[in-house]
Amino acid sequence: MTRSDDVNFHTHQFPSGEYIAKIYEPILPEKKLVITWFVDTPVNDSLMEIISLIDAAKNSGAVDITLVVPYFIYSRQNIMQLPYSSIGMKIMAQLLESTGIKRLVTVDIHSLESLGFFSIDVVHISVAEILSYYSRELNLDNVTIIAPDEGSKKRLNNISNNIVTMKKTRNLGRVVMELLGNVEGKDCLIIDDIYDSGATIRAAALCLKKNKAKRIAGYVTHFLNSKAPPIPLYITDTVPLRCSSEKNLSILPILPVIAKFL
Which letter does DSSP use for residue 140 in this model? Predict the structure, then answer.
């Protein structure tokens, strides 16, 4: 799903899988065009659709294009997984820059180091900025924030002094959590960037329960799963919801947060 305010456009996919994008009016060169790309599945089809639309916008006269990508696909492929393997994030940066966009806006990317692949201006909206915007809804003043691993703790710096970290390891493919603090009798909020398999949230919730936490909930920016989570979970709508049931889900709109940075 793609949005571009004030521009009349259409994208079409042919039976072969190819895309064409059409814009039905010229775009003045001085107009600052903002295109918001909500990545849908299959993600590679969605990628070709947005590249086609950007090209159509350029052909219509657009010069100053900002691309907003709330959930950045391939962001977990920011290093070589094996010797001589591809780096998906680098490929994405090269592809999008080749379209001629002037700047990119993205939300809670998996690894900040990934932004180093870009040479254009990039605005990164951090999880801290999202949590600050929705602090009342999340009741942040009255919960213990749980960082499920050291990487999460780094992303949560300056949010709160009341952060408890977990040590995450994997044993025969199973996620194992070790609590590095006290949560007995406390209301806990687990914070992570992506909910895909859900293994991290499940393991963290089980660990908190064993350590006598009072109430357990979670927050993730990008919810990619098709099943309802096992605990109450706050999510943003950076990707179209694929879950057949909204049980245990509370959705926080991301566009009001993004609007502050445009």
Answer: G
